[in-house]
Amino acid sequence: MDHFFLLIWHAFLVAVFFAFLWRTERRLQIRLFLKTFLIMVVGGFLAGWLMYPFP
Amino acid sequence: MTKKSQKKLEEPSIKPVNPVPPALLGAAWLVPGLGHLLLGKKTRAAVFFGVVAAGFVTGVVLDGEVGVPRADNPFSWLSTIACAGNGILYLARLVWLNGLGGLLSNLPLGLEGGGDPVSAGFGYGKTFLVTAGLMNLLTVLDASDIARGAKS
Predict the structure, then answer these.
(1) Which 8-state DSSP code applies to residue B13?
(2) What is the pTM of this model?
(3) Residue B96 pLDDT
(4) Nearest CB to B142 within list A6, A9, A21
């Protein structure tokens, strides 16, 4: 099981959902999707690295 | 009291809102996206159905447990509420795991939630199931806003 793929898949679903829930214009939807997706993926990746030293 | 402030008191700034039919909210909860479909928002309906269904199926495939209430764990009620947000997907999963007779006779504290705690995907699966349920609950609120005229 690829944990990183699951992170990407979860971020994708959530980002698509909120883009359509909170924005109606296509350009703004794409912008919110990219913003949410990147924050979740990069944030999750960084949180993983920050937790690395802890048992 | 000045004329201006008196006028302000007489004319409340809150606009009257349309009442929301309970059946619409029930439909929006039961089938993800149905509320938006009934309101004529076809694209959003399709996207919400796709996203919630994909999240739910991913959770089940990863051996996640759907939330069921447990007598010894008060937090299980929170995951039950979140997972119950999946509507018919949640009910179908419970029937699949418990059978219709078992579902009715074991309510509310003896239900089987499925999933394999030993599986590597157990935690991830539950996360997907909870996320999908919460997203569907948000679509119910969104459908309510649209029906009230507070949102387009």
Answers:
(1) S
(2) 0.86
(3) 92
(4) A21
The ipTM, to two decimals, is 0.89
Q: B interface mutation test: which of A2, A18, A20 has the most B CBs within 10 A? A: A20
Q: Are B101 and B144 in contact (CB under 8 A)?
A: no
**pLDDT at position B4:** 62
Whether A29 contacts A51, CB under 8 Å: no
Compute CA distances B119 → A1, B129, B131, whole Å.
Answer: 10, 16, 19
pLDDT at B93: 93
| Cα separation values, B109 from A48, B56, B68, B96, Å | 36, 22, 7, 17
Spacing of C-alpha B101 from chain mean position: 24
Q: Which of B133, B74, B62, B29 is nearest to A2 (CA)?
A: B62
Chains A–B, number of C-beta pairs less than 8 Å apart:
38
Q: Which residues of B touch A13 (CB under 8 A)?
A: 51, 54-55, 131, 135
**Rounded distance, CA A3 to CA B111, Å?**
30
Is the Cβ pair B142, A9 closer than 8 Å? no
Contacts of B52 in chain A (CB under 8 A): 17
Dihedral angle, C-alpha A34, A36, A41, A42, nearest 10 °: 90
